[in-house]
Write a structure and sequence with these properties.
The complex is a heterodimer of chains A (254) and B (283). Chain A is an alpha/beta fold and 254 residues long. Helix content of chain A is 36%, strand content 26%. The chains are: A alpha/beta (254), B mainly alpha (283).
Protein backbone atom coordinates (compact mmCIF):
# COMPACT_ATOMS: atom_id res chain seq x y z
CA UNK A 1 0.00 0.00 0.00
CA UNK A 2 1.18 3.48 -0.80
CA UNK A 3 2.07 5.89 1.99
CA UNK A 4 -0.62 8.28 3.24
CA UNK A 5 1.71 11.23 3.15
CA UNK A 6 4.97 11.63 1.27
CA UNK A 7 6.93 14.79 1.79
CA UNK A 8 9.90 15.45 -0.45
CA UNK A 9 12.49 18.17 0.10
CA UNK A 10 9.85 20.53 1.35
CA UNK A 11 10.85 24.07 2.32
CA UNK A 12 8.87 27.13 3.21
CA UNK A 13 10.22 30.65 3.30
CA UNK A 14 8.53 33.67 4.73
CA UNK A 15 9.65 37.13 3.76
CA UNK A 16 10.22 39.47 6.63
CA UNK A 17 10.51 43.18 6.21
CA UNK A 18 12.84 44.99 8.48
CA UNK A 19 10.43 47.15 10.31
CA UNK A 20 8.22 44.26 11.21
CA UNK A 21 5.76 44.68 8.38
CA UNK A 22 5.77 43.30 4.88
CA UNK A 23 5.13 45.74 2.12
CA UNK A 24 1.41 46.07 1.80
CA UNK A 25 1.04 49.60 0.63
CA UNK A 26 1.56 51.20 -2.71
CA UNK A 27 4.20 53.62 -1.54
CA UNK A 28 6.49 50.83 -0.39
CA UNK A 29 5.92 48.90 -3.59
CA UNK A 30 6.70 51.93 -5.71
CA UNK A 31 9.74 52.58 -3.58
CA UNK A 32 10.93 49.02 -4.13
CA UNK A 33 10.73 49.34 -7.87
CA UNK A 34 13.59 51.78 -7.61
CA UNK A 35 15.67 50.07 -4.99
CA UNK A 36 17.10 46.61 -4.65
CA UNK A 37 15.33 44.35 -2.26
CA UNK A 38 18.00 44.33 0.40
CA UNK A 39 15.66 45.43 3.13
CA UNK A 40 13.95 42.07 2.94
CA UNK A 41 14.98 39.16 5.08
CA UNK A 42 13.97 35.61 4.35
CA UNK A 43 13.02 33.30 7.16
CA UNK A 44 12.92 29.60 6.44
CA UNK A 45 10.15 28.08 8.53
CA UNK A 46 10.91 24.64 7.05
CA UNK A 47 14.13 23.48 5.39
CA UNK A 48 14.34 20.43 3.16
CA UNK A 49 11.87 18.25 5.03
CA UNK A 50 11.69 14.62 3.89
CA UNK A 51 9.09 12.49 5.58
CA UNK A 52 6.93 9.49 4.76
CA UNK A 53 3.95 8.63 6.88
CA UNK A 54 2.22 5.32 6.28
CA UNK A 55 -1.47 4.80 6.35
CA UNK A 56 -2.65 4.10 9.91
CA UNK A 57 0.37 5.58 11.64
CA UNK A 58 -0.12 7.89 14.61
CA UNK A 59 2.69 10.40 14.56
CA UNK A 60 3.51 13.02 17.14
CA UNK A 61 5.44 16.12 16.12
CA UNK A 62 7.51 17.76 18.83
CA UNK A 63 9.41 20.97 18.77
CA UNK A 64 9.77 24.31 20.41
CA UNK A 65 7.69 27.31 19.43
CA UNK A 66 8.73 28.47 16.00
CA UNK A 67 10.33 25.17 15.05
CA UNK A 68 8.02 24.79 12.07
CA UNK A 69 5.36 22.41 13.39
CA UNK A 70 2.38 24.58 12.54
CA UNK A 71 3.80 25.54 9.15
CA UNK A 72 4.12 21.87 8.28
CA UNK A 73 0.49 21.22 9.22
CA UNK A 74 -0.64 24.30 7.31
CA UNK A 75 1.05 23.04 4.16
CA UNK A 76 -0.43 19.57 4.53
CA UNK A 77 -3.82 21.16 5.16
CA UNK A 78 -3.44 23.17 1.92
CA UNK A 79 -3.77 26.47 3.74
CA UNK A 80 -0.46 27.68 2.44
CA UNK A 81 1.94 26.38 -0.17
CA UNK A 82 5.55 25.33 0.14
CA UNK A 83 8.27 27.47 -1.40
CA UNK A 84 10.05 24.43 -2.84
CA UNK A 85 9.56 20.68 -2.71
CA UNK A 86 6.32 18.76 -2.69
CA UNK A 87 3.97 16.70 -0.57
CA UNK A 88 1.60 13.99 -1.75
CA UNK A 89 -1.47 13.27 0.32
CA UNK A 90 -3.52 10.11 -0.26
CA UNK A 91 -6.93 10.05 1.36
CA UNK A 92 -9.35 12.54 2.77
CA UNK A 93 -7.47 14.90 5.02
CA UNK A 94 -9.07 17.04 7.70
CA UNK A 95 -7.09 19.55 9.65
CA UNK A 96 -8.05 20.85 13.06
CA UNK A 97 -5.59 23.66 13.27
CA UNK A 98 -7.76 25.65 15.59
CA UNK A 99 -10.75 24.40 17.44
CA UNK A 100 -13.85 26.18 16.23
CA UNK A 101 -12.30 28.18 13.39
CA UNK A 102 -15.24 29.07 11.18
CA UNK A 103 -17.78 29.35 13.97
CA UNK A 104 -19.84 32.50 13.99
CA UNK A 105 -20.79 33.83 17.44
CA UNK A 106 -24.09 35.38 16.38
CA UNK A 107 -25.47 32.26 14.75
CA UNK A 108 -27.21 29.48 16.65
CA UNK A 109 -25.71 26.10 17.43
CA UNK A 110 -27.74 24.51 14.66
CA UNK A 111 -26.69 27.11 12.08
CA UNK A 112 -23.08 26.77 13.09
CA UNK A 113 -23.13 23.01 12.67
CA UNK A 114 -24.43 23.38 9.12
CA UNK A 115 -22.02 26.14 8.27
CA UNK A 116 -18.91 24.66 9.80
CA UNK A 117 -19.54 21.22 8.37
CA UNK A 118 -19.97 22.80 4.94
CA UNK A 119 -16.75 24.81 5.27
CA UNK A 120 -14.91 21.64 6.22
CA UNK A 121 -16.19 20.02 3.06
CA UNK A 122 -19.30 18.04 3.98
CA UNK A 123 -22.18 17.84 1.54
CA UNK A 124 -25.67 18.80 2.55
CA UNK A 125 -26.96 15.24 2.41
CA UNK A 126 -24.12 14.09 4.60
CA UNK A 127 -24.68 16.82 7.18
CA UNK A 128 -28.35 15.94 7.39
CA UNK A 129 -27.51 12.29 7.97
CA UNK A 130 -24.95 13.00 10.66
CA UNK A 131 -26.61 15.95 12.36
CA UNK A 132 -28.16 14.03 15.25
CA UNK A 133 -25.01 12.08 15.87
CA UNK A 134 -23.00 15.33 16.00
CA UNK A 135 -25.24 16.99 18.58
CA UNK A 136 -25.33 13.81 20.65
CA UNK A 137 -21.59 13.40 20.78
CA UNK A 138 -21.14 17.11 21.53
CA UNK A 139 -23.87 17.05 24.17
CA UNK A 140 -25.49 20.27 22.97
CA UNK A 141 -29.05 19.03 22.38
CA UNK A 142 -30.57 21.73 24.58
CA UNK A 143 -28.66 24.59 23.02
CA UNK A 144 -29.36 24.10 19.35
CA UNK A 145 -31.17 27.41 18.99
CA UNK A 146 -28.96 29.41 21.33
CA UNK A 147 -26.45 31.81 19.76
CA UNK A 148 -22.99 30.34 19.89
CA UNK A 149 -21.62 33.28 21.88
CA UNK A 150 -23.66 32.03 24.84
CA UNK A 151 -22.01 28.60 24.69
CA UNK A 152 -19.31 27.90 27.25
CA UNK A 153 -15.81 27.39 25.85
CA UNK A 154 -16.07 23.71 26.63
CA UNK A 155 -19.30 23.36 24.70
CA UNK A 156 -17.86 25.14 21.67
CA UNK A 157 -14.85 22.85 21.78
CA UNK A 158 -16.96 19.72 22.02
CA UNK A 159 -19.10 20.87 19.13
CA UNK A 160 -16.11 21.71 16.93
CA UNK A 161 -14.48 18.42 17.73
CA UNK A 162 -17.67 16.47 17.07
CA UNK A 163 -18.02 18.08 13.63
CA UNK A 164 -14.42 17.37 12.65
CA UNK A 165 -14.56 13.73 13.67
CA UNK A 166 -17.84 13.25 11.81
CA UNK A 167 -16.13 14.26 8.60
CA UNK A 168 -14.83 10.72 8.62
CA UNK A 169 -11.34 11.61 7.41
CA UNK A 170 -8.60 9.15 6.54
CA UNK A 171 -5.98 11.55 7.79
CA UNK A 172 -6.45 13.84 10.74
CA UNK A 173 -4.18 16.77 11.58
CA UNK A 174 -4.46 17.98 15.16
CA UNK A 175 -2.66 21.12 16.27
CA UNK A 176 -2.64 21.73 19.99
CA UNK A 177 -6.24 20.70 20.46
CA UNK A 178 -5.40 19.61 23.97
CA UNK A 179 -4.07 22.98 25.01
CA UNK A 180 -7.59 24.22 25.50
CA UNK A 181 -10.47 22.79 27.49
CA UNK A 182 -10.68 21.22 30.90
CA UNK A 183 -9.52 17.78 32.01
CA UNK A 184 -12.83 16.19 31.07
CA UNK A 185 -12.63 17.57 27.59
CA UNK A 186 -9.03 16.51 27.20
CA UNK A 187 -9.89 13.00 28.29
CA UNK A 188 -12.76 12.95 25.85
CA UNK A 189 -10.53 14.23 23.12
CA UNK A 190 -7.91 11.61 23.82
CA UNK A 191 -10.52 8.87 23.78
CA UNK A 192 -11.80 10.04 20.39
CA UNK A 193 -8.30 10.24 18.97
CA UNK A 194 -7.50 6.76 20.30
CA UNK A 195 -10.67 5.42 18.77
CA UNK A 196 -9.84 7.02 15.44
CA UNK A 197 -6.37 5.48 15.63
CA UNK A 198 -7.89 2.06 16.25
CA UNK A 199 -10.06 2.49 13.18
CA UNK A 200 -6.87 2.76 11.19
CA UNK A 201 -6.87 6.52 10.59
CA UNK A 202 -3.60 8.28 10.01
CA UNK A 203 -3.12 10.92 12.68
CA UNK A 204 -0.59 13.70 12.91
CA UNK A 205 -0.59 15.23 16.29
CA UNK A 206 1.12 18.39 17.50
CA UNK A 207 1.12 19.08 21.21
CA UNK A 208 3.28 20.22 24.07
CA UNK A 209 1.59 17.65 26.26
CA UNK A 210 4.29 14.95 26.20
CA UNK A 211 2.33 12.51 28.32
CA UNK A 212 -0.59 12.57 25.93
CA UNK A 213 1.79 12.08 23.02
CA UNK A 214 3.36 9.05 24.59
CA UNK A 215 -0.08 7.62 25.25
CA UNK A 216 -1.36 7.94 21.68
CA UNK A 217 1.51 8.04 19.24
CA UNK A 218 3.82 5.29 18.07
CA UNK A 219 6.19 7.45 16.19
CA UNK A 220 7.71 10.77 17.16
CA UNK A 221 9.36 13.44 15.08
CA UNK A 222 11.33 16.31 16.52
CA UNK A 223 11.57 19.55 14.58
CA UNK A 224 14.28 21.97 15.49
CA UNK A 225 15.34 25.09 13.63
CA UNK A 226 13.04 24.19 10.73
CA UNK A 227 14.57 20.72 10.25
CA UNK A 228 13.78 17.18 11.34
CA UNK A 229 16.42 16.28 13.90
CA UNK A 230 14.91 13.06 15.21
CA UNK A 231 12.52 10.48 13.81
CA UNK A 232 11.80 7.24 15.66
CA UNK A 233 9.70 5.56 18.34
CA UNK A 234 7.79 8.11 20.39
CA UNK A 235 9.65 7.48 23.66
CA UNK A 236 12.97 8.07 21.98
CA UNK A 237 11.66 11.26 20.40
CA UNK A 238 10.31 12.54 23.69
CA UNK A 239 13.64 11.89 25.42
CA UNK A 240 15.46 13.63 22.65
CA UNK A 241 13.11 16.60 22.84
CA UNK A 242 13.48 16.88 26.60
CA UNK A 243 17.23 16.88 26.24
CA UNK A 244 16.95 19.48 23.55
CA UNK A 245 14.98 21.71 25.88
CA UNK A 246 17.36 21.28 28.80
CA UNK A 247 20.42 22.19 26.73
CA UNK A 248 18.53 25.00 25.15
CA UNK A 249 21.33 27.49 25.57
CA UNK A 250 24.18 25.39 24.25
CA UNK A 251 22.51 23.13 21.72
CA UNK A 252 24.02 23.09 18.28
CA UNK A 253 21.93 21.79 15.42
CA UNK A 254 23.00 18.36 14.23
CA UNK B 1 -20.72 5.85 15.82
CA UNK B 2 -19.92 4.07 12.56
CA UNK B 3 -21.40 6.15 9.82
CA UNK B 4 -21.12 4.98 6.27
CA UNK B 5 -19.76 7.63 4.04
CA UNK B 6 -22.20 7.39 1.16
CA UNK B 7 -21.11 10.42 -0.75
CA UNK B 8 -17.51 9.79 -1.61
CA UNK B 9 -15.70 6.57 -0.99
CA UNK B 10 -13.07 7.25 -3.60
CA UNK B 11 -9.56 7.74 -2.27
CA UNK B 12 -8.54 11.23 -3.16
CA UNK B 13 -4.94 11.88 -3.91
CA UNK B 14 -3.39 15.25 -4.41
CA UNK B 15 0.00 16.73 -4.63
CA UNK B 16 0.94 19.93 -2.87
CA UNK B 17 3.47 21.92 -4.85
CA UNK B 18 4.76 25.48 -4.82
CA UNK B 19 2.67 26.46 -7.82
CA UNK B 20 -0.15 25.02 -9.83
CA UNK B 21 -0.39 25.44 -13.54
CA UNK B 22 -2.65 28.37 -14.14
CA UNK B 23 -6.27 27.37 -14.15
CA UNK B 24 -9.31 29.41 -13.30
CA UNK B 25 -10.39 26.85 -10.73
CA UNK B 26 -13.92 26.41 -12.00
CA UNK B 27 -13.81 22.77 -11.00
CA UNK B 28 -12.94 23.62 -7.42
CA UNK B 29 -15.70 26.17 -7.38
CA UNK B 30 -18.20 23.71 -8.79
CA UNK B 31 -17.20 21.26 -6.08
CA UNK B 32 -17.80 23.98 -3.53
CA UNK B 33 -21.23 25.03 -4.80
CA UNK B 34 -22.93 23.88 -1.62
CA UNK B 35 -20.44 25.81 0.46
CA UNK B 36 -21.18 28.82 -1.71
CA UNK B 37 -24.83 28.44 -0.84
CA UNK B 38 -24.08 28.09 2.89
CA UNK B 39 -21.75 31.05 2.88
CA UNK B 40 -24.33 33.24 1.19
CA UNK B 41 -26.99 32.04 3.59
CA UNK B 42 -24.73 32.75 6.55
CA UNK B 43 -24.07 36.26 5.29
CA UNK B 44 -27.76 36.95 4.92
CA UNK B 45 -28.48 35.58 8.40
CA UNK B 46 -25.71 37.55 10.06
CA UNK B 47 -26.67 40.74 8.29
CA UNK B 48 -30.21 40.82 9.51
CA UNK B 49 -29.82 39.11 12.86
CA UNK B 50 -29.83 42.29 14.89
CA UNK B 51 -31.38 44.82 12.58
CA UNK B 52 -34.85 45.70 13.86
CA UNK B 53 -36.01 46.65 10.39
CA UNK B 54 -34.38 43.55 8.92
CA UNK B 55 -34.67 43.09 5.19
CA UNK B 56 -36.48 46.44 4.91
CA UNK B 57 -33.03 48.05 4.91
CA UNK B 58 -32.37 46.54 1.52
CA UNK B 59 -35.26 48.56 0.13
CA UNK B 60 -34.99 51.67 2.28
CA UNK B 61 -31.50 52.67 1.17
CA UNK B 62 -32.17 52.95 -2.58
CA UNK B 63 -35.68 54.22 -1.93
CA UNK B 64 -34.34 57.11 0.12
CA UNK B 65 -32.19 58.23 -2.79
CA UNK B 66 -35.04 57.84 -5.24
CA UNK B 67 -37.10 60.23 -3.09
CA UNK B 68 -34.22 62.63 -2.80
CA UNK B 69 -33.35 62.67 -6.50
CA UNK B 70 -36.99 62.88 -7.50
CA UNK B 71 -37.33 65.97 -5.34
CA UNK B 72 -34.24 67.57 -6.82
CA UNK B 73 -34.46 66.58 -10.48
CA UNK B 74 -38.16 66.44 -11.26
CA UNK B 75 -38.54 70.07 -10.19
CA UNK B 76 -35.30 71.98 -10.48
CA UNK B 77 -33.50 70.45 -13.46
CA UNK B 78 -35.44 69.52 -16.55
CA UNK B 79 -34.42 66.14 -17.89
CA UNK B 80 -36.30 63.75 -20.09
CA UNK B 81 -35.66 60.24 -18.81
CA UNK B 82 -36.44 58.46 -22.09
CA UNK B 83 -40.11 57.80 -21.69
CA UNK B 84 -40.04 56.82 -18.04
CA UNK B 85 -41.53 58.66 -15.07
CA UNK B 86 -38.56 59.96 -13.07
CA UNK B 87 -39.18 57.74 -9.98
CA UNK B 88 -39.11 54.57 -12.13
CA UNK B 89 -36.12 55.89 -14.07
CA UNK B 90 -34.23 56.62 -10.85
CA UNK B 91 -35.21 53.49 -8.95
CA UNK B 92 -34.35 51.19 -11.87
CA UNK B 93 -30.85 52.68 -11.84
CA UNK B 94 -30.38 53.02 -8.11
CA UNK B 95 -31.58 49.53 -7.16
CA UNK B 96 -29.13 48.02 -9.65
CA UNK B 97 -26.43 50.35 -8.45
CA UNK B 98 -27.06 49.37 -4.84
CA UNK B 99 -26.72 45.71 -5.83
CA UNK B 100 -23.55 46.28 -7.84
CA UNK B 101 -21.94 48.51 -5.23
CA UNK B 102 -22.73 46.30 -2.22
CA UNK B 103 -21.46 43.26 -4.10
CA UNK B 104 -18.19 44.92 -5.14
CA UNK B 105 -17.43 46.45 -1.74
CA UNK B 106 -18.17 43.29 0.22
CA UNK B 107 -16.35 41.07 -2.26
CA UNK B 108 -13.33 43.36 -2.11
CA UNK B 109 -13.18 43.49 1.69
CA UNK B 110 -14.51 39.99 2.41
CA UNK B 111 -11.10 38.31 2.52
CA UNK B 112 -10.08 40.38 5.53
CA UNK B 113 -13.43 39.87 7.18
CA UNK B 114 -12.90 36.11 6.85
CA UNK B 115 -9.19 36.12 7.66
CA UNK B 116 -9.57 33.90 10.73
CA UNK B 117 -11.17 31.14 8.65
CA UNK B 118 -8.73 31.51 5.76
CA UNK B 119 -5.79 31.05 8.09
CA UNK B 120 -7.14 27.82 9.52
CA UNK B 121 -9.27 25.99 6.97
CA UNK B 122 -8.77 25.20 3.32
CA UNK B 123 -11.60 25.79 0.88
CA UNK B 124 -11.73 27.48 -2.53
CA UNK B 125 -11.27 31.13 -1.62
CA UNK B 126 -13.33 32.31 -4.55
CA UNK B 127 -16.35 31.35 -2.47
CA UNK B 128 -15.85 34.53 -0.45
CA UNK B 129 -16.14 37.23 -3.14
CA UNK B 130 -18.81 35.31 -5.02
CA UNK B 131 -20.97 34.77 -1.97
CA UNK B 132 -20.64 38.51 -1.25
CA UNK B 133 -22.39 39.14 -4.55
CA UNK B 134 -24.94 36.47 -3.60
CA UNK B 135 -25.72 38.28 -0.36
CA UNK B 136 -26.17 41.54 -2.25
CA UNK B 137 -28.44 39.71 -4.71
CA UNK B 138 -30.64 38.67 -1.83
CA UNK B 139 -31.11 42.36 -0.94
CA UNK B 140 -31.72 43.20 -4.55
CA UNK B 141 -34.65 40.79 -4.84
CA UNK B 142 -36.75 42.83 -2.39
CA UNK B 143 -35.80 46.09 -4.03
CA UNK B 144 -36.62 44.66 -7.46
CA UNK B 145 -40.06 43.50 -6.29
CA UNK B 146 -40.76 47.03 -5.11
CA UNK B 147 -39.48 48.44 -8.39
CA UNK B 148 -41.92 46.29 -10.35
CA UNK B 149 -44.71 47.45 -8.03
CA UNK B 150 -43.78 51.07 -8.68
CA UNK B 151 -43.69 50.49 -12.44
CA UNK B 152 -47.07 48.79 -12.43
CA UNK B 153 -48.42 51.82 -10.55
CA UNK B 154 -47.36 53.96 -13.53
CA UNK B 155 -48.88 51.50 -16.01
CA UNK B 156 -45.56 49.93 -16.97
CA UNK B 157 -43.81 47.88 -18.24
CA UNK B 158 -44.99 48.58 -21.76
CA UNK B 159 -44.33 45.04 -23.00
CA UNK B 160 -44.08 42.18 -20.47
CA UNK B 161 -42.35 39.76 -22.82
CA UNK B 162 -39.65 42.30 -23.61
CA UNK B 163 -39.48 43.17 -19.92
CA UNK B 164 -38.78 39.64 -18.70
CA UNK B 165 -36.01 38.92 -21.20
CA UNK B 166 -34.22 42.25 -20.95
CA UNK B 167 -34.57 42.62 -17.18
CA UNK B 168 -33.12 39.12 -16.65
CA UNK B 169 -30.22 39.87 -18.98
CA UNK B 170 -29.61 43.10 -17.12
CA UNK B 171 -29.51 41.33 -13.75
CA UNK B 172 -27.16 38.63 -15.01
CA UNK B 173 -24.82 41.21 -16.49
CA UNK B 174 -24.94 43.26 -13.29
CA UNK B 175 -24.06 40.18 -11.21
CA UNK B 176 -21.11 39.40 -13.47
CA UNK B 177 -19.95 43.00 -13.35
CA UNK B 178 -20.13 43.00 -9.57
CA UNK B 179 -18.34 39.66 -9.18
CA UNK B 180 -15.66 40.57 -11.71
CA UNK B 181 -14.76 43.95 -10.29
CA UNK B 182 -15.19 42.65 -6.72
CA UNK B 183 -12.75 39.78 -7.30
CA UNK B 184 -10.25 42.04 -9.00
CA UNK B 185 -10.37 44.59 -6.18
CA UNK B 186 -10.23 41.81 -3.57
CA UNK B 187 -6.86 40.66 -4.84
CA UNK B 188 -5.55 44.22 -4.99
CA UNK B 189 -6.89 44.98 -1.55
CA UNK B 190 -4.86 42.16 -0.01
CA UNK B 191 -1.66 43.32 -1.70
CA UNK B 192 -2.13 47.03 -1.10
CA UNK B 193 -3.89 48.32 1.96
CA UNK B 194 -4.40 51.60 0.08
CA UNK B 195 -7.37 50.08 -1.66
CA UNK B 196 -9.31 50.45 1.52
CA UNK B 197 -9.35 54.17 0.72
CA UNK B 198 -9.36 53.85 -3.03
CA UNK B 199 -12.44 51.63 -3.32
CA UNK B 200 -15.05 54.09 -1.96
CA UNK B 201 -13.52 56.78 -4.16
CA UNK B 202 -13.63 54.54 -7.21
CA UNK B 203 -17.23 53.52 -6.57
CA UNK B 204 -18.37 57.10 -6.14
CA UNK B 205 -16.71 58.05 -9.39
CA UNK B 206 -18.44 55.18 -11.15
CA UNK B 207 -21.80 56.27 -9.82
CA UNK B 208 -21.41 59.77 -11.21
CA UNK B 209 -19.89 58.54 -14.46
CA UNK B 210 -22.97 56.51 -15.26
CA UNK B 211 -26.51 57.28 -16.37
CA UNK B 212 -27.93 56.34 -12.99
CA UNK B 213 -28.95 59.72 -11.61
CA UNK B 214 -29.28 61.60 -14.89
CA UNK B 215 -29.53 60.39 -18.50
CA UNK B 216 -26.17 60.68 -20.28
CA UNK B 217 -27.97 62.51 -23.10
CA UNK B 218 -27.89 65.63 -20.89
CA UNK B 219 -24.10 65.66 -21.35
CA UNK B 220 -24.36 66.31 -25.09
CA UNK B 221 -22.67 64.51 -27.99
CA UNK B 222 -19.03 65.17 -27.22
CA UNK B 223 -16.69 62.24 -27.93
CA UNK B 224 -15.56 61.86 -24.33
CA UNK B 225 -19.13 61.04 -23.31
CA UNK B 226 -18.71 57.70 -25.10
CA UNK B 227 -16.13 56.70 -22.50
CA UNK B 228 -18.90 56.58 -19.95
CA UNK B 229 -20.32 53.64 -21.90
CA UNK B 230 -17.39 51.57 -20.71
CA UNK B 231 -18.60 51.84 -17.15
CA UNK B 232 -19.60 48.26 -16.24
CA UNK B 233 -22.82 49.38 -14.59
CA UNK B 234 -24.00 51.43 -17.60
CA UNK B 235 -25.07 48.38 -19.63
CA UNK B 236 -27.27 46.80 -16.96
CA UNK B 237 -28.86 50.16 -16.13
CA UNK B 238 -29.86 51.09 -19.67
CA UNK B 239 -31.14 47.56 -20.23
CA UNK B 240 -33.27 47.71 -17.11
CA UNK B 241 -34.78 51.02 -18.25
CA UNK B 242 -35.45 49.65 -21.70
CA UNK B 243 -37.14 46.68 -20.03
CA UNK B 244 -39.64 49.03 -18.44
CA UNK B 245 -40.08 51.58 -21.21
CA UNK B 246 -40.22 49.07 -24.06
CA UNK B 247 -37.82 51.27 -26.09
CA UNK B 248 -35.25 49.02 -27.87
CA UNK B 249 -31.89 48.55 -26.17
CA UNK B 250 -28.90 50.43 -27.50
CA UNK B 251 -26.72 47.33 -27.90
CA UNK B 252 -23.63 49.34 -28.78
CA UNK B 253 -23.59 50.83 -25.28
CA UNK B 254 -24.32 47.46 -23.69
CA UNK B 255 -21.49 45.95 -25.72
CA UNK B 256 -18.97 48.55 -24.56
CA UNK B 257 -20.05 48.16 -20.98
CA UNK B 258 -19.88 44.35 -21.20
CA UNK B 259 -16.37 44.59 -22.57
CA UNK B 260 -15.22 46.09 -19.28
CA UNK B 261 -17.10 43.42 -17.36
CA UNK B 262 -15.50 40.64 -19.38
CA UNK B 263 -12.11 42.23 -18.81
CA UNK B 264 -12.55 42.53 -15.03
CA UNK B 265 -13.84 38.95 -14.82
CA UNK B 266 -10.84 37.47 -16.64
CA UNK B 267 -8.19 39.68 -15.07
CA UNK B 268 -9.86 39.47 -11.66
CA UNK B 269 -9.90 35.68 -11.75
CA UNK B 270 -6.31 35.57 -12.93
CA UNK B 271 -5.03 37.76 -10.09
CA UNK B 272 -7.21 36.06 -7.55
CA UNK B 273 -5.94 32.61 -8.48
CA UNK B 274 -2.37 33.82 -8.30
CA UNK B 275 -3.01 35.24 -4.87
CA UNK B 276 -4.95 32.25 -3.57
CA UNK B 277 -1.93 30.01 -3.05
CA UNK B 278 -0.31 32.27 -0.48
CA UNK B 279 -3.32 34.21 0.70
CA UNK B 280 -3.11 32.76 4.21
CA UNK B 281 0.43 34.18 4.57
CA UNK B 282 -0.67 37.68 3.61
CA UNK B 283 -3.72 38.36 5.70
Amino acid sequence: MKAAIEIKALSKAYRLAHQGVTATNLREHLFRLFSNRQSEEVFWALKEINLTINSGEVVGILGKNGAGKSTLLKILGRITRPTTGSATVRGKLVGMLEVGAGFHPELSGRENIWLNAAILGMKRQEIRAKFDSIIRSAGVEKFLDTPLKQFSDGMQLRLAFAISTHLNPDILLLDEVLAVGDIDFQRNCMATVEQAAKQGKTIIFVSHNLEAMQAICQRGIVLHDSKIVQDGPINQAVNFYQQLCSNAGTYVAL
Amino acid sequence: MEIKNAVDDVVVEYEIRPKDRISFGFRDLWGARELLYFYTWRGVRVRYKHAVLGVAWAVLQPLFFVGLFTLIFSRGIKISPNGLPYPVFAFAGLSLWHYFNTGVVHAATGLYANAHIIRKIYFPRLVIPISAVGIAAFDFISAFALLIGLAVFYGLPADWGHFIVIALLSIVLCSLASAGLGTLLASFHVRFKDFQYLIPFLMQTMLFASPIIYPTSTLGDADWVKFLDFNPITGPVIMMRSAFSGIPVDWLIVGRSSLTTAFTCVVGLYFFRKLESHLADLI
